[in-house]
Each structure stands twice: as structure tokens, then as C-alpha cells.
Design a protein that fits this description.
Two copies of one chain form a homodimer. With about 375 residues, chain A is an alpha+beta fold. Chain A folds into two domains: about 60-175, PurM-like, N-terminal domain (60s Ribosomal Protein L30, Chain: A, 2-Layer Sandwich); about 180-210 and about 225-365, Alpha-Beta Complex (Phosphoribosyl-aminoimidazole Synthetase, Chain A, domain 2), CATH 3.90.650. Chain A is about 30% helix and about 25% strand. Chain A contains eleven helices and 15 strands. The first copy, chain A, has helices at about 20-25, 35-45, 95-110, 130-145, 200-210, 225-235, 240-250, 265-275, 290-300, 300-310, 325-330; strands at about 55, 65, 70-80, 115-125, 150-155, 155-160, 165-175, 190-195, 255-260, 275-280, 315-320, 335-340, 345-350, 355-360, 365. In chain A, β13 (about 345-350) and β14 form a beta hairpin. Chain A is globular and about 60 Å long. The termini of chain A are far apart. In chain A, about 50% of the residues are buried. Mean pLDDT of chain A is about 90; it is low at about 1-25 and about 360-368. The interface between A and B is large, with 121 and 121 residues.
């Protein structure tokens, strides 16, 4: 189709109509050439916060906005796109609604704040029925009730193809309790909650069974023994309990992030923001038994799943050494390593003392 | 494809895997059977606000959340979907970025609050280039600077097809200044800012020229004389200036909404929330000269465009009679009618005294 572009300089109002094909004005750079982080950096670079109420803009799990003298609101927004972030072949709508809420509030929790409100917007294609949406909102409602969060708004739009979900979450904290990615200090302990890799393996299991059963009638998928993996993928719970526990123990992490892209990528985000390096230890990685079992069946290294699988929605945070005992009291937290000088890089240390350099996607051995 | 659904009751955890096709569990109701408002009502009905900080949840232009003793934050979220809300054939990316910000902050303004922060999330298909995104964000940046708003976050995701834009806007106001849709009283004046119908006619013009020039090389579209219509469609400005003007005159509207769905639909929203009726007068409708001119060319009734075109991003509000003189001082505001008893319905009064019942889509004559 002939492309018509009616352009004018935004700062001078309408002066002249110019008709040009997009290709005629500028070159075309593929987004893949920059990668997601490079793209976001480039696009948001010109934006400088000008409002006094903007405490923290782009660059953390959530934006921080002044509420009162002593408190701040944290606001975050996320997208879930059909065919990219979920597949309706094996994602029940109720779970999708639940997970959408989790995805939003997990970013709030990562700021050491408690979530209070969410909005959910949907772009809906014609294949989506009212019954689907009722189920979806039943999941939203369940997650909201569980996390003591109010659904306060949203928008619905038609969509040409596919379902797109947009979640905005709002939380609140005392200003001095808010934790950024940028506060990690050398020798700080690196802590994680829960276990890693299960959601990724849950997804792989669903994909396998979906492939196996395609076109087959009357057969059931083989999920026995892997329920934990499925639950972690289909119904992940944000760790707001940890924010409460840390507060009860009087512990404020020096840096925190939620594990959505995978431990390697998210730890590197902390290191990048805090200008530091890190060492984590292979034998301290909390990997569930079901991960190892399915990993063996499917020839997937559970350590790779833990490092790069993503969607764990656990918390990764750093603490000063002296907080070690308070963390032990909390129970469900593992200390997996420590922060190092910036020039030392980010490495996984194997039991034999070898060091594997962490990469945002995949990892390579440095030495053994 | 065989559908695999792995369901469990969300409140009891994983118990049992059930494999069923979606059609087997429940009937299928098309969304169109309910309509957008019916759908939203049905889906959000089970949600009750439980947080003390939630002052107003679902059901207005924006949610209202307690910030401090005296102030509240207002939060709103909107979607713009390619092929539904915009067509990239004739929507330049810079303008799209500008309009996305306008769409978000217009809802904040409609609460009589001033916007302070926005987040923009994008689901991007492979046809979108880095250059497109740079232009898009240049438009976002321009709109943010103009409205004194900070871009504080967002998310990017891949998309299988088409561009989806999600905008969240955050604003702030003294609690007693916040205006809801529900406060209109009998005999209140009905006021609107600016003029109506121009964006709809701008869209019709772009669609016409796009059709005419499809496959044609070297020809220019015929836009002369209709620049105002194009600007109103491609680069609408939210009326934050009105919030400032009303504050300067010490006027607080009794009810307010932004004109995004069309005057008829939006006035009916106020009447529905305020439990009242309305009379607006045809000869008082502010319709720009270019609307009448293009309307004549294209056989589009400019009054229909004004009532049902939508995307005006002007403000519709109600005021007590005694505020009449203060509004006159502001200049750019038209008084188009008044609020009536609920049982009297919502009507457009023609110069000969006829009454036309307002409908959310289209309108029908009642009597003449």
C-alpha cells in the first residue's frame, strides 16, 4: 500500500503537508540490533525528570513518586502479549488473570513497598468470549484478594489479533524504606527468596505435552510429579510476604530487584546500577527437586534454567554482612554469593573453583 | 489445534489435572452482545475496594488514591491498538507519541487534577523500526515537556502483529478539588471547552485521501483548508490549561468528564453517574467552520460528528448556575445546556423546539 505521511514539526504547528514513504526519510534499523535494554536506554535517554514529585523515573522496577513528606508511591506498568508472553493453548484464563496481577505487584515488592492498587487493561480479539473474560477476572480478583490489593481501573479495546494485557500497579512505602537497584556495596551478601528455574521448566513441560497431544483425542498430558513446576509457571505468587518479613526484622536491603528475566540478567542489572561485580556459588543455588527430575528427562540443565529461565518472580537482594543473622531468622532466604569490586565482573563459581561469566542470555565458561 | 486446559481451583492449589476443550466447559457469549460498558460493569462488579487508601476505584476517568491528609493522586490507564485506534498508513509516529500522552493526561485533567507523570508501554511487531520508535518518543517527549509531565517508566514487549500502546498517567490534586462524574445537580449548567467533531472529520479526511491515493504515485493528498481538522485528530492537546483556569477563578465543577467517546455518550455517562437528565441545545453546539465545510463535501452531518465522533479530548463539565459569570471570564467555554430531573432523559433540543434523544451511538428523533 502507498504510504501517506503527513508530517509537520511538532513545535511549529501545521505548516505544510509532505507526502513521503517512510523509507524515503530515513534508514531502517531493526530493533534486534539494539536489544531490549539498549533500545530502552536509547529511547528514554532524552527524558529528564522535571517534576519535584518525581523521586525516581525510568530505570528501576518501578517509578517512585512523592506522596507526602514521609511516604512515596511506587508505580509500575507491564505488558503481556499473546503468542509472546503466553499461549492460550495451555494457559487457563483464570491463571492468566492471576499471573497478570503477580507480574504487576512483583515490581512494587521489588522496591520494598507494599502493593495497594492495580489497573488491568485488555486489548481483546474477537476469539475471546465473555466466559473467557469472566474466568480471567476471577483470577484477577483472587490474586487481588490474596495480596490485599484493589482493582481500581482499566481500559478495554478491541484488537485485530491476539490478546494484550497491560497491568499497572501502585504501592506505597516510607521514603527511607524504598530500595533501588543501585545501592549494593562491595562485600554485601547476595540473597534470593524461594527457588529458581521452576517456571521455565513448567513452561517447557506444557510445551512438550501440547506438542505431543496436538491432534490427539482422549489422551491426557503427563504432568504427574511436576505439579510444582506447573504451579510456579501458571500461578506465580509475588513475594509481598518478604517485604513484610523484612520490615518485621527491621532489615532494609541495600539493593533489590524481582527475578523476571532470570537470575543472571537481573543480577547484572543490580551490578550495572550499583557499579559493582558479583560472585555467586553454584552449590548454593536453590533448585527444586522437580527441576532436576524434569531437566534430566528433557535434557535441560536446571542451572541454566535457574540462571536464564526467567519469570521466577522471586526477589534478589543485597544486604550488609552484619544482617546475616536476621536473614537466617526469616527462613526462606538463601545467601548465594557476595558483591565484589566493579572491575571483577559477574561470575558463577563452580564447586571446583571454576568461574563462569554470567550473561544476560546463556553463559560461557571463563576458566576452570 | 487440540486445546489443552490444565485447570485447578485457584483457592485450593493443584489437586488434579483436567483436560478439556474450552467449548466443553461453558457456552460462548460474544462480547458484542454486552457492549463495552455492559462488559466492564459485569467484569468489575465483583471488585470491592478494601484498601483505605482507595478513595475511588473503577467507574470514573481515573482512580483516586490517598496521597497525604490533604492531597490525592489520580491514576488512569489507556490502550491504543493499531488497526483499531490508529492506522500507521496516515498516522506519523511522532504524532502518535504525542497523542498517546494526551490520551493519558486527558483523563487526569477530567478529574480536575494536574498530570505529573506518565508511563508508556509498547508491544512492538517486527515491522516497527528503531527510527519509528525514535520519532514516537520524540512526540512523547514533546507532549511531556508541553504539559510539564515526566515520563517515569514503561515496558517493551515483542508483538506477533501490530503495535499496541499502553499509557498510564498519574496526577495530583487537593482532595476537595477532585471532580467526579457523579456530582451533577438539577439546573446545573452544562459546559464544554473548545469545539467538537473536528477530530472525527480529520480522520474521515485522512481515510478518504488514503483511499484515493492508494497505489497512486506522485500525487498529493488534498488537505488544503482542513488543517485544523487534521491537527485536532493527529495532535490533540489535553485541556490542562482549563484545570489551571478554573483554579484561578476559584471554580470547582460539580461533575466532569473528558470527551473521548463523543458528547452524547460522555454526557450520558455523567447523567448515569449523577442520576440526572440533560437538555443540550443544537444552536449552542460549538462546531468549527472547517467541520461544516468538509461535512458538506463528504456528506457527513457535523452535528452527528460533534455528538458521536469522539476523540475530542475537550472537557465536559457541569456548574451551579451562580458560577455563570466566572465561566464567561474564562472565554473558551460554551454553555450548551442544563441538567434536568432523572426521569426526563437526555435530549438535544433543536431550534424549533424539537427534542432528539441522545444515544451513545447515533441518535434518533423523539418529536418535533
Amino acid at each position: 500500500m502507498q504510504k501517506i505521511y503527513y508530517l509537520w514539526a511538532l513545535n511549529i504547528g501545521i505548516k505544510q503537508a509532505i507526502i513521503i514513504g517512510m523509507a524515503k526519510i530515513k534508514g531502517r534499523t531493526e530493533i534486534a540490533e539494539l536489544g531490549e535494554f539498549g533500545l530502552i536506554d536509547m529511547l528514554t535517554e532524552p527524558f529528564k525528570a522535571s517534576r519535584k514529585t518525581t523521586i525516581k523515573g525510568v530505570g528501576d522496577d518501578a517509578a517512585v513518586i512523592e506522596a507526602s513528606k514521609s511516604t512515596a508511591m511506587v508505580v509500575t506498568t507491564d505488558l503481556m502479549v499473546e503468542g509472546i508472553d503466553f499461549d492460550l493453548t495451555y494457559f487457563p484464563p483464570k491463571h492468566l488473570g492471576y499471573k497478570a496481577v503477580t507480574k504487576g505487584i512483583s515490581d512494587i515488592v521489588a522496591m520494598n513497598a507494599l502493593p495497594e492498587q492495580v489497573t488491568i487493561s485488555l486489548a481483546i480479539s474477537s476469539k475471546i468470549s465473555v466466559e473467557f473474560l469472566k474466568d480471567f477476572y476471577a483470577g484477577v480478583e483472587f490474586a487481588c484478594r490474596e495480596a490485599e490489593v484493589d482493582l481500581v481501573g482499566g481500559d478495554t479495546s478491541a484488537s485485530v489479533t491476539g490478546l494484550t494485557i497491560s497491568i499497572t500497579a501502585v504501592g506505597r512505602a516510607k521514603k527511607e524504606k524504598i530500595v533501588y537497584r543501585s545501592g549494593a556495596k562491595v562485600n554485601d551478601l547476595i540473597c534470593i527468596t524461594g527457588s529458581l528455574g521452576a517456571p521455565y521448566l513448567g513452561l517447557k513441560l506444557l510445551q512438550r505435552e501440547s506438542r505431543v497431544l496436538e491432534g490427539v483425542v482422549g489422551e491426557k498430558p503427563q504432568f504427574e510429579g511436576f505439579e510444582y513446576l506447573l504451579e510456579r509457571y501458571l500461578k506465580p505468587r509475588a513475594r509481598y510476604d518478604i517485604v513484610r518479613s523484612l520490615a518485621a526484622e527491621g532489615v532494609v536491603p541495600t539493593a533489590m530487584i524481582d527475578l523476571s528475566d532470570g537470575l543472571a540478567s537481573d543480577l547484572m542489572q543490580i551490578c550495572r546500577s550499583s557499579l559493582c561485580g558479583a560472585r555467586i556459588y553454584l552449590e548454593r543455588m536453590p533448585i527444586a527437586r522437580q527441576c532436576s527430575a524434569l531437566g534430566e528427562q528433557m535434557h535441560i540443565d536446571p542451572v541454566t534454567a535457574a540462571l536464564n529461565g526467567g519469570e521466577d518472580y522471586e526477589l534478589l537482594f543485597t544486604l550488609p554482612l552484619e544482617a546475616r543473622e536476621k536473614v537466617a531468622v526469616l527462613g526462606c532466604i538463601d545467601i548465594i554469593g557476595h558483591i565484589t569490586e566493579p572491575q571483577t565482573g559477574c561470575f558463577l563459581v563452580t564447586p571446583d573453583g571454576g568461574e563462569i561469566e554470567l550473561r544476560a542470555q546463556g553463559f560461557v565458561k571463563k576458566s576452570e
